[in-house]
Every structure is written in structure tokens, then in C-alpha cells.
Design brief:
Blueprint lengths: L1 H10 L2 H6 L9 H5 L25 H15 L14 E2 L5 E2 L9 H20 L4 H4 L13 H5 L10 H7 L3 E3 L10 E5 L5 E10 L5 E2 L8 E9 L6 E10 L11 E5 L8 E6 L35
Parallel strand pairs: 8-9
Antiparallel strand pairs: 1-2, 3-10, 4-5, 4-10, 5-6, 5-7, 7-8
């Protein structure tokens, strides 16, 4: 009531207050109609709780996952029949069991990068809703409704790499090779009819110098994945320098992966990025009965061997 009286006293003409003492009983309807009240203050309402400008993409957490995995599980050995370097808790929904840990292979490495990024993000932000988006079985099964079935590569699912998998599940978008950023995902094909699934780290020059962006000096890129030999110290989570076949196989600061096919066709060089959880669309593949069963890993294609292994 006091606030209303103050507003009325301020809003009414000065002459009126000078002639008679102001009381509510003397207030006329016309007086209220002529009042000019102050504008209501603007209130910023976020589109979604926890959303922050500038974090549409999940690259920062993907790179944190890469650092974490290299530091804690690096070079423990490669094996095409192994999945995950260790058991991973899927929040309160149970444990995603490793198979033949601590060995792992390339497509499983990308799944482990994603799961580790989930964990680091949830612990840092307190937002555990990332685990509600897909059920635990999506990281265990190989059907069209399972993210794992797409990461493992299945052309019938329109999944030629990790980037396609994320796109198919509303968790990412296409980013062409010339626009890649550290923490994006790439699947390569080689002239030797083999391939690999990796996390992009940086463009490189012919001497292995890391380049901040795409340009005429780019001959390939540095990546993170699992490759190499079964023996600890000779394979597993590690970095490589991928070189496109037209540039030969120049000396690099570390182990090379030569004969990589450069192409703008996503079938041969599959590239893309991952959204932050706030931007996941909820669009996921549905079983229609027309898909051809489950994904079968192509073990001869993903053999894990790079040039200097």
C-alpha cells in the first residue's frame, strides 16, 4: 500500500497536490487512467537451465577426455577383439563392462573418449542429465538403435564413422575436413584398403609442425586413438601423424600413419563434431524392421597397424 501511495503521489500532477491534500477517497477513475507507471524491469530467462553462451560444441570435454585417457590408460596395448581399457560406470544405471581390458581398439577408443567426456563434464558441472539421453545398452548393443552400432561403422545404418554416429543420434553435426577443430572426430580410409577411427588434434605440415588452421601447408593431421601392437608400450591409446597419400610419407616428430586418402566424400574421410548436451536434439534412429540386423565389425579393415608400428 505504501508503494502504491508513493507511485500515485509521484505520478499525479503537481498542481493537483498543491490544491488539496491527497487521499484515496479523492482519487477518481480518470486519475488512474492518466497515470504513467515506470516500465517493468527486464528479466533474462535462459532457454535451458545450465546453458552458457559459446559452448554449443563438446570439444573442450573431448580434449579433456583425450588427456585423461592418455595419462591414465595410454599405451596399454591394442587388440581388435578388446573393448574399453577399463569398466566404466554409466552414472546410476550400471557398469559398461570392458572386454579384455586394458587392451582396446580404435572404434572402441572413440566410444571411450565420448564416455570419458560424459564423466568429466558431469563431475565438473554437476549436470548428470547426459546419462538420461541414451540408455546404457546404447553403448553395449550393435543394433540400429544403439550408438555403438553406428560408431562401429555400418553403411546400412548410414554410419561411415563416429561423426555420422553422433549426427544420426542428434548429438553432432557435419564439419568438413578444412573446418575441423581439435576434439572433432575423423574416420579415415587408406590406399591399403584399411581404415581407422580417431579424434582430431591438429593439422600438420610436411615437417610435422602443428598448424592452427587449414591451408596450403597442410599435408595431414595429428590424431588420438588406439592402434599399434598388443604389447604394452607398443600399442593402445596414443597419438599419430596421419599423412595424405599424395604427400608421400615424410619424416615426422612421432609415429606416422601414411597412405591416408584425402577426399571430400564422407565415405572415405568422415568428419564431424559433437554438440554440448544442451543442444542434443532428441532425434535418434528407430527400428523399422528393414535394417539388416546388427553391425559386424570389419576386423581386417580396422587392423590397428600404422606405418611405424
Amino acid at each position: 500500500m505504501t508503494r502504491l501511495l508513493l507511485l500515485l503521489a509521484i505520478a499525479l500532477p503537481c498542481g493537483a497536490s498543491a490544491q488539496t491534500a491527497f487521499t484515496l477517497n479523492s482519487l477518481q477513475l480518470q486519475d488512474l487512467r492518466e497515470l504513467t507507471l515506470p516500465a517493468a524491469p527486464e528479466v533474462a530467462v535462459p532457454l535451458r537451465a545450465g546453458a552458457r553462451a559459446g559452448d554449443k560444441y563438446f570439444n573442450a570435454y573431448v580434449l579433456k577426455a583425450v588427456d585423461h585417457l592418455y595419462k591414465n590408460y595410454g599405451l596399454l596395448g591394442y587388440d581388435i577383439n578388446s573393448i574399453l581399457t577399463h569398466d566404466i560406470e554409466y552414472h546410476t544405471f550400471g557398469t559398461i563392462k570392458a572386454r579384455r581390458a586394458p587392451l582396446t581398439m580404435c572404434v572402441a577408443a572413440q566410444m571411450e573418449v565420448i564416455l570419458t567426456a560424459f564423466d568429466l563434464y558431469a563431475r565438473e558441472t554437476g549436470d548428470y542429465s547426459v546419462y538420461n539421453y541414451l540408455p546404457k545398452r546404447s553403448f553395449e548393443g550393435l543394433a540400429i538403435t544403439d550408438l555403438k552400432g553406428h560408431i562401429w561403422v555400418n553403411h546400412d545404418f548410414k554410419a561411415d564413422g563416429t561423426a555420422d554416429a553422433l549426427i544420426n543420434f542428434g548429438m553432432g553435426e557435419r564439419r568438413t575436413f578444412d573446418k575441423l577443430l581439435p576434439g572433432d572426430f575423423v574416420n579415415i580410409n587408406r590406399t591399403t584398403k584399411t581404415g581407422h577411427a580417431v579424434t582430431f588434434i591438429s593439422y600438420i605440415s610436411k615437417t610435422g609442425k602443428l598448424l592452427p588452421s587449414y591451408g596450403p601447408d597442410v599435408v595431414g593431421f595429428k590424431y588420438f586413438s588406439s592402434q599399434g601392437l598388443r604389447e604394452a608400450g607398443q600399442g593402445g591409446f596414443d597419438y599419430r601423424y596421419a599423412v595424405f597419400s599424395k604427400y608421400g610419407c615424410p619424416e615426422m616428430p612421432y609415429k606416422r600413419d601414411c597412405n591416408v586418402i584425402y577426399s571430400t566424400d564422407q565415405l572415405y574421410l568422415n568428419t564431424g563434431t559433437m554438440f554440448s548436451p544442451e543442444y542434443w536434439t532428441g532425434v535418434v534412429p528407430q527400428a523399422t524392421g528393414e535394417e539388416s540386423g546388427e553391425t559386424a565389425l570389419n576386423r581386417s579393415f580396422f587392423n590397428g597397424i600404422t606405418t611405424d608400428d
